[in-house]
Amino acid sequence: MYTTVNEDGVLNNYATEPKMYYAEYPAIWQQRKYLIQGVFAFLIVTTLILVAFSVS
Question: Is this structure's pTM higher than 0.90?
Fold first, then answer.
């Protein structure tokens, strides 16, 4: 933990910053998984909108 002290003696604690890394491009199976999740999300939102219109 990184700590500083100002002229009044007040301590300021700062969290240690994590080591940065570059994201890797998703693999083919991950891309398919994201596609399936997107399709299900689209279907849920569309169903909710249609139900809202039919109720009102």
Answer: no
Q: Which pLDDT score is estimated for 1?
A: 63
Domain ranges of the chain: 26-56
Q: Could you tell me if 5 and 11 are in contact, meaning their C-beta atoms sit under 8 angstroms apart?
A: yes
What distance in Å separates the CA atoms of residue 50 and residue 23, rounded to the nearest whole number? 38
Query: Going by C-beta distance under 8 Å and a sequence separation of 6 or more, which residues neighbour residue 40?
Result: none
- Cα separations in angstroms, 34 against 4, 31, 37, 42, 46: 44, 5, 5, 12, 18
